[in-house]
Specification:
By secondary structure, this protein is of the alpha+beta class. The protein has 26 helices and 20 strands. The strands form 2 sheets. Strands 11, 12, 13, 14, 15, 16, 17, 18, 19 and 20 form a 10-stranded mixed β-sheet that branches. Strands 2-3-8-5-7-6 form a 6-stranded mixed β-barrel.
Length: 844
């Protein structure tokens, strides 16, 4: 118990070192927890959201491309063994147009005569499902309240059937299917839904409810065997698989950043602990001389580390919760959906509880053992009797060099596809750790080189600063290492983020053509679900004077045959192509003229991620599942595509119409003649006002896309900034220790006439040497890691992003490192300038 009290007093007496160690733990734990919680929340939200849309149904039958089909399918399925009920229905996204509000909702059409228990709605106000008639809907209470509506009020729904007024006759609680997408659900009769969705007498889904004890895989196989061409059976939750593919790129980047944050935290902890040992050498020597054994000293130091790790871990878990909440908000903007509150699971917290203490103990166990083995005489002798130059062990540096070479070799394997992509974050960690451990091999030349540069700016003070840094080699090396980690991580992740944002921008510029965009509501970018528009609208737009071209665009869910499984989900992107205008695709393979001719002839263009998944190149064939059955399509070329994570197939509109039952458009892109821009804009304003449509200009759309991307990037930049802040805390501790150990030297300099201002300049010069010595190798490694991230993303996800040096990122990291080092030197410099000459001359 006395040892615990002694440890607590020791931590309290050195608050800066304690705070630095705890902060390193917080960063590592918070990064892992926040990324894990945010990505798991998004995945679970999509899975549960679409599972809820199925109600009690374990399976559902849908048409490829989401078209309509005969409700007689349900009657045939009810005779399948294990099927309790097969309930036909209709559901699709429509837009709600209210006063000053536009929202996308899921319209659910229910056959009130035979629900089969597939839907369970709890009415909280008004009438229920059984009394619904034409022009009436039920809405979720909270969602209706957000629109400022209640029972008896009317709202306008925009669907492929046009703009219609409906009455809210009942409010339901947000549970089951009514909880879909935050309660954005409107329930109506099946007949009304068929009218609004232009289905005629058809339905677009059959919900299959299984009997008690039924074997779902067996029933699914039997159902699939009975379905006509163009229909497929799936689980309701599988509708969220496209969103999962859309998240892969973002998740890969977040995982890499969290891994690098853990490395940065580990070196911050090691830095602070070694500085703590350096300051306590006399204290530890006295304890040893009073009879404390080596093991007791080691355990005492590890006990202090354990205390700090517990505090840091708990604070890190709390910070991770906050970071996850911020990251989920960014995901909401990026994916265009309403995500629920954080999905809390034990796994991230268990990982954090293990990671925090494990990280701290791993970073301090070796130094603690070395401190415990030191002789009492080494600790209690005066500072003047100690060696002028701190010895540095060479084996960690050579170990780091080996780790560096191994990681670099595996990085080459990752780029070439010989190393699994899941090892990407681990390779980055190995590369970073190896470089930091190998720094002592080049530390001398780096410090001397940095000292020469700083000496030119600071003169004599710069050369005096170099002496103390060279004397404390281990401490200097660790401080250089911490800032080196910050610079390398900032450059690598910053370059990757800038490159990806730039690539997305270039992709939009090439693929999104047109001056105006007509929609019912903004689509969900994660699933590409959108409220449909009637195809007849295209003719009205073409009749406007000054309109040059009108291009319909629609997203169609489908699947392709794969080598290792029967089918994999894809999104078919149907749009018009014309021989007299440039190809609006971001080609990766193939020439523009040949690809355009092939598309107009009925061939397909696939996203690079899908091409890599299928192992196809231009000239090969893929088998696409369509309404007329599995259809072989020649691959005309590959394109960079971010829709559905690149699992996309482009088809010309006419070819897509042959293969799918297209009865709607998600968007109309309108190109205008140069002399008619203002006039057409006014005509479009009147049209959308009359029909309740959403009108966007090209610039408005790109601003919206930028805002979605920036939501996630803001969190990443914040994490990078925190790493720099912690690195600057390491510099503060190093310079403070240097000032304390140089008291006598500084007092002599003052006695010989050096002013307080010049003493402060000497401390700032030390910070400058550390910054320069860490920035240059940090920039080099950062560029190498950015290249590895770039090529690794291409190899793993199939998204080819052109690698470019990012001068602004390099300059920013350089400037931030120098500025943070200067800020970090301020307080130690003030302390040096305030030293009393007489007291310092008596210091030992």
């Amino acid at each position: 118990m006395k040892f615990w009290a002694y440890s607590l007093r020791g931590l309290w007496r050195r608050p800066s070192r304690t705070v630095l160690t705890v902060t390193g733990i917080i960063i590592g734990v918070a990064a892992v927890v926040s990324v894990s919680l945010a990505t798991e929340t998004t995945r679970v939200a999509y899975r549960e959201m679409f599972a809820a849309a199925g109600g009690r149904a374990s399976l559902e039958v849908v048409a490829l491309g989401e078209g309509g089909f005969s409700p007689e399918v349900a009657e045939e399925l009810e005779g399948v063994s294990g099927v309790e009920a097969a309930v036909p229905g209709a559901q699709a996204n429509v837009a709600v147009v209210a006063e000053g509000v536009r929202a996308q909702v899921l319209l659910v059409g229910v056959d009130t005569a035979r629900t089969g228990g597939a839907e369970d709605y709890e009415v909280v106000e008004g009438t229920g499902l059984g009394s619904l008639s034409g022009g009436q809907v039920l809405m979720v209470s909270g969602f209706a309240e957000g629109l400022g509506k209640g029972v008896g009020d009317r709202i306008r729904l925009l669907s492929p059937g046009g703009l219609v007024d409906v009455e809210i006759v009942g409010l339901i609680s947000p549970r089951g299917i009514a909880a879909f997408n935050g309660g954005a659900v409107a329930v109506t009769s099946l007949g009304e839904a068929q009218r609004l969705l232009s289905l005629g007498a058809n339905v677009d889904t059959v919900k299959v409810i299984l009997g008690e004890g039924a074997d779902e895989p067996a029933v699914r196989e039997k159902v699939a065997a009975l379905l006509p061409q163009g229909l497929r059976v799936q689980t309701p939750a599988s509708r969220g698989d496209i969103a999962r593919m859309s998240m892969l790129s973002a998740q890969s980047g977040l995982d890499s950043l969290s891994a690098l944050a853990v490395v940065a935290g580990a070196f911050v902890i090691l830095n602070a602990f070694l500085m703590n040992l350096g300051e306590r050498k006399t204290e530890i020597g006295l304890l040893r001389s009073l009879g404390m054994e080596r093991g007791q000293v080691t355990r005492l130091l590890l006990r202090e580390t354990l205390l700090m790790s517990v505090v840091g871990t708990l604070l890190g878990l709390a910070a991770g919760l906050g970071g996850a909440a911020v990251l989920v908000l960014g995901m909401e903007k990026l994916l265009g959906v309403s995500l629920p509150s954080l999905h809390i699971t034990w796994n991230p917290f268990i990982t954090g509880l293990v990671l925090g203490p494990g990280l701290a103990l791993a970073a301090t166990v070796v130094p603690a053992r070395r401190a415990g083995r030191a002789s009492p005489l080494e600790g209690i002798r005066s500072r003047g009797e100690r060696e002028d130059r701190q010895s540095v062990r060479r084996w960690p540096a050579y170990t780091g060099l080996v780790l560096l070479l191994v990681s670099a070799g595996m990085g080459v394997g990752l780029v070439s596809g010989r190393v699994p992509g899941d090892l990407g974050p681990l390779l980055l960690v190995g590369l970073l750790v190896g470089c930091v451990m190998a720094i002592p091999l080049v530390q001398g030349p780096l410090i001397r080189w940095g000292g020469e540069l700083v000496a030119r700016a600071f003169g004599v003070e710069g050369r005096l600063a170099l002496l103390q840094l060279d004397r404390q080699r281990t401490r200097t090396g660790l401080t250089v290492g911490v800032m080196f980690v910050a610079v390398a991580v900032a450059v690598s992740m910053g370059s990757s983020m800038v490159a990806n944002v730039r690539d997305v921008g270039e992709w939009y510029e090439r693929t999104i053509v047109g001056d105006y965009f007509i929609r019912a509501a903004m689509p969900e970018t994660g699933t590409n679900r959108a409220a449909g528009l009637p195809l007849e609208l295209g003719e009205e737009l073409r009749d406007i004077t000054g309109v040059k071209q009108v291009h319909p665009f629609v997203f169609l869910p489908s699947s392709v045959d794969e080598k290792n499984s029967s089918a994999g989900d894809v999104v078919v992107l149907a749009r018009t192509f014309s021989p007299d205008r440039p190809l609006p695709l971001d080609l990766a393979e193939g020439t523009e003229a040949e690809v355009l001719d092939s598309l107009l002839s009925g061939d397909a263009v696939v996203g690079t991620a899908l091409a890599q998944r299928l192992g196809v190149v231009p000239g090969d064939e893929i088998t696409l599942h369509t309404r007329i059955g599995p259809t072989p399509l020649r691959v005309a070329g590959t394109v960079t595509e971010y829709t559905a994570g690149g699992s996309a197939v482009y088809l010309d509109w006419e070819r897509a119409t042959e293969l799918f039952d297209i009865r709607r458009a998600d968007t109309f892109m309108v190109s205008v003649k140069e002399d008619y821009v203002g006039r057409v804009g006014a005509d479009l304003d009147r049209l959308v006002e009359r029909k309740g449509l959403l009108l966007q200009t090209l610039s408005d759309f790109r601003v919206l896309v930028d805002e979605m991307i920036q939501g996630v990037m803001a969190f990443l930049w914040l994490l990078l900034a925190l790493i720099f802040v912690v690195a600057s805390l390491g510099i503060i501790n190093t310079l403070t220790m240097n000032v304390l150990e140089q008291r006598r030297d500084l007092g002599l300099l003052r006695a010989l006439g050096m002013t307080r201002g010049r003493l402060r300049r000497m401390v700032f010069a030390q910070a400058g040497v550390v910054a320069v010595a860490s920035v240059v190798p940090g920039l080099v490694l950062g560029v190498a890691m950015a290249f590895l991230l770039n090529r690794g993303t291409n190899a793993v996800l199939g998204q080819p992003v052109a690698f470019r040096l990012e001068p602004m990122v390099l300059l920013g990291a350089f400037v931030v490192a120098l500025v943070m080092s200067g800020i970090a030197a301020y307080f130690p410099a003030r302390r040096a300038g305030a030293l009393d000459i007489v007291q310092t001359l008596h210091y030992e």
